[in-house]
Amino acid sequence: MLLMSSLTFASAHQLARMIRDRQVSAVEVLDAYLTQIAKHNSKLNAICTLDEDNARTRARLADEALARGENWGALHGVPITIKDIFETAGLRTTAGYIPLKDYVPQQDATAVARLRAAGAVIMGKTNMAELAADYQSTNSLFPRVNNPWHLDYTPGGSSGGSAAAVAAGLSPLDLGNDFGGSVRQPAHFCGIYGLKPTDRRISTAGQIPEVPGMPLSIRQMMTVGCFARSLEDIRLCFSLIAGADLRRPDVPPIPLDRPSGKPLQHLKIAWSAEWAEVPVASEIRAAMESIVQTLSHAGVQTERWLPKDFDLSKILNLYGRISMYLTIYAQPQDRYNLRRSLELIFRTATQGDKELRKLGDFSRFLPEILNPSLKGYFEALTQRDRFTADMDEALEPWDVWLCPVAATAAFTHRPAWTAVDVNGRSYPHAVANGAYTMPSNLSGHPAVVIPIGQTQNGLPIGMQIVGKRWCEMELLAIAEAIDKVVGSLQHPPGY
To answer: Which of the following is catalytic: 25, 137, 162, 182?
Structure first.
């Protein structure tokens, strides 16, 4: 019998091979994870709905199928978890939203269905921010999610439960979504790998926060991604869930790209240690500079770089303008609450700092959002198209672009939208957490996060690797080559 820890911290592809080769049964793997969940989830609150009985049945059927010579797919018998924002047939899906506390979907989200079809065993749903609307993971239905590296710190959001579960060995693989950093920031805060793919690469069918019965309004910038403890698992999950979907006709039938196979020494890598307008914590900047130095010593061509005319204020404000159209236009009853919330957020977070207000003060768009127009929406989308084209052109000479994920490592739990201290200066919550992720949501470019080290008090530091649109397989191949040089994946102690 294999040790439980060797199973709960094995990668998903390793578990699939071990089950397929009869080194261990699917039931034994599931039992190991259920034991880990029973031991640790009460302090992490990472998993909000556990489906133990159905998972046991599915694992038993997986073993019986193998005994008959049947193989369901690349994840045959492998237990996984799913962020509670994705519909799961027969299993409660709440998105951390009280009106959905008893919602049991009839159909899987497309990405969930594809993982199930590949043989995955769904153990349960992971906790999150209410309707995916915060960079912490709190809601009114379940206890807050805690970071496995330090329980007094947030694992990030909105996919904090996903990242915490994977980091702590409660799950080898989790499905998340990313509209402004909801995969990348938690991966950075919890020290694991996370992917945000190209916009429209993966179907969002069956994903909330469009509450069931409401019109589909979030048609840009929302992506489906994944969390894992290895890039090989990220690549496997991505390859299984990507592709056209009859439920979302705007997902194009573009085949996955083939990696070039270019050796690390032939790569041209651009990097930015920080944006001038939002300096990062000194330990993050030092970690970034150390990684670049390591790559340079390995023979990689690196250059400190920013895209031409990279105006962060314009980028963040365009992102904010579009996101408000997408999330509010279909829900006019929420406009009054939005106005009150925005005024509170920016009054408390900027603390009168006029320069910071320029970066993230979306309240300047309140007249437009409270009285939205089709003309204003189309104008914003046209500006987004221009930005995407500019980024395509700017990234063309480079293989990838390295940059931070957020201005800080994980921070202590705090009330929603409270300011974040960065090097002694107070930053708006959305700016500190989203200034480095929102640009690639706006442009639609893929980005993967890898761990690159830790702070002095033992909190993880991640790095964002941005690639060309529709070239995720090349991006992941380059990230894997960089990761082999960096080698910074660690597990939180005590798990």
So the answer is: 182
Active site residue 182: yes
Strand-pairing partners, residue 124, are 50, 81
The residues that bridge with 453 in the sheet, in sequence order, are 461
Q: Which amino acid is at 365?
A: F
146 near 43, Cβ under 8 Å?
A: yes
d(CA 153, CA 148) in angstroms, rounded, equals 9
- Residue in 123, 120, 127, 121 with CA at minimum distance from that of residue 154: 127
User: Residue 234 has which token pair?
Assistant: 């990220």
How confident is the model over 392-404, as a mean pLDDT? 98
Note if 11 is an active site residue.
no
Q: Which of 11, 158, 159, 440 is catalytic?
A: 158
Separation between Cα atoms, residue 363 and residue 106, nearest integer Å: 39
Q: How confident is the model at residue 354 (pLDDT cuts 50, 70, 90)?
A: low
CA–CA gap between residue 154 and residue 134 (Å, rounded):
11
- pTM (global) more than 0.90: yes
Q: List CB contacts of 86: < 8 A, sequence separation 6 or more.
A: 93, 108, 109, 111, 112, 175, 177, 206, 207, 208
Q: How far is CA 354 from CA 165, 326, 330, 339, in A?
A: 39, 27, 32, 20
Are 161 and 137 a contacting pair, CB within 8 Å? yes
Q: What integer pLDDT is reported at residue 459 of this predicted model?
A: 98
Q: Which two tokens stand for residue 370?
A: 């409270």
**In the block, residue with structure tokens 């941005």:** 466
Q: How many residues does the chain have?
A: 495
The per-residue pLDDT for range 408-421, each reduced to its tens digit, is 999 999 998 888 99
Radius of gyration of the chain measured on its C-alpha atoms = 21
Residue 86 is classified by DSSP as B
Q: pLDDT confidence of 111, banded at 50, 70, 90?
A: very high
Kindly report which listed range (279-283, 369-373, 413-417, 491-495) carries the lowest average pLDDT score. Answer: 369-373
User: How far apart are alpha carbons 153 and 151 in whole angstroms?
Assistant: 5
Whether residue 365 is predicted with pLDDT greater than 80 in this model: the reply is: no
- Alpha carbon distance 178, 172 (integer Å): 19
Average pLDDT for residues 323-344, to the nearest whole number? 58
User: Of 83, 125, 196, 468, which residue is the catalytic one?
Assistant: 83
* 314 is annotated as an active-site residue: no
